[in-house]
Amino acid sequence: MALNPLSGIHQGLVTEQEFASFGNVVFKALKENSPGDVDIKRTGQAAAMVFWKTNTETPRPDLLNLTANDVATMRFAHSAYMQSAQHISLPYQTGASGIVSSAAGKYLPVFVISLRMLRRTGSQLPVELFVDTEAELASHTCQTLLPSMNAHCLRLEDRLGKWARYLASFQVKVFAILASSFENVLFLDADAFVAKDPSHAFVQEPFSSTGLVTWPDFWASSASAHLFEITGQPVPPMNALASTESGQLLVSKSSHALTLLLAAYYNYYGPDVYYPLMSQGGPGEGDKDSFIHAARVAQAPFHQVKKCVDTIGYYEHGAYHGGAMLQYDPTQDSTSTAASVTTMDNPPDAFSVHHNIPKYDPVQLIDTGVLVDAKTGIPHRLIGTKEETEKRFGRDVERELWEEIEYVTCELANQIVGWKTIPTTKDAQGTCDKVRWYRKEVFV
């Protein structure tokens, strides 16, 4: 696979007509191969089962009411879609690598912080951001601010067709990847940021040989046995692979075209059909396991990072509060060929931080009171002590994050759609003043 991580997005661009034609073909295949009007009901909710506590004897949850006729109907539709998908070519700029994300409303400024953290690493990778509305696309954020940082806004419906405007939430990720200009994509959730320049990950193992790298969640997969029956796969043991934490995903469109088109099917019909099949109400139900399952069905290679995800957070009066999920550099991953995710005595470098709960939206952080001790009112860090942070990252990355939060909140507030800039409490102090106070108190 010939990869160039520094390829720009303005050389030999795929035309909008080519993207539109692709969108029409994909939509036709999706609609013609609907799984049908299946009423999937759960008899319970899959428990949050820690992955590394499972073994080959761990029973798989069985919590869906599906008739044999339903399974047969869905299996026929899936097979027909797969046959169609094998003849669909993906549009992309050959050799181009870049970062793709999606954000709208109050998450637009969160994305700007993530983008500024990326540029702090020295990375010059081009970025494409998929937004929701025409107003967002026409805003100063998209027209001036992001282009100044080699990032560009797009809308799914402009690239794929009007049908794409109805995609929402977890469905968006795979279609944003398909609609992006790049051959090789690092997808980052808007509330995730990289801890180092990710360019090397595009040209080194395991991506250079597999074309698909995923990162593990804490939990075992809670997919229904019916999912494997519908997609024609053997049912794996519960300790075969951890569930996916998809705040970050690395994929090659050239080597994983069928994988992505299958993932598109699982997400297009996700909310009512494939999400319950893949999770049965388990933790983080949504798109997360659609990529690995699609790769298995496509019989395409992939690598799930072996090093377990870590929680980074803080203690308050003896109680631990998780602040973010820490994922590790895949190029320094275990050389073991074992399918299970293992712990390591000497972990790889930190690669990305998914600040999912709470998100680094200062309005939310201030309003919820999470920044200060509930009993003393003293402000504190969210993702570990200074010493812990410097040990994990080689620098005080949380201090850097709050420098960017302050800059975006105070210097760019009038340039970014999405955040409230009015006072957030009964007093007259606004968000900017509170962010400045917090940063000066905590990161002296």
Automatic annotation (TrEMBL):
One of its GO terms (biological process) is mannan biosynthetic process. GO terms for molecular function: alpha-1,2-mannosyltransferase activity. InterPro entries: Alpha_mannosyltransferase (IPR022751), Nucleotide-diphossugar_trans (IPR029044). It is a single-pass type II membrane protein. The keyword Cytoplasm does not apply. Gene3D superfamilies: Spore Coat Polysaccharide Biosynthesis Protein SpsA, Chain A. It comes from the Eukaryota. GO terms for cellular component: Golgi membrane. Keywords: Golgi apparatus, Membrane, Signal-anchor, Transferase, Transmembrane, Transmembrane helix. Its main location: Golgi. Pfam families: Mannosyl_trans3 (PF11051). Pathway: Protein modification; protein glycosylation. It is found in: Golgi apparatus membrane. Belongs to the MNN1/MNT family. This is Nucleotide-diphospho-sugar transferase. It comes from Aureobasidium melanogenum (strain CBS 110374).
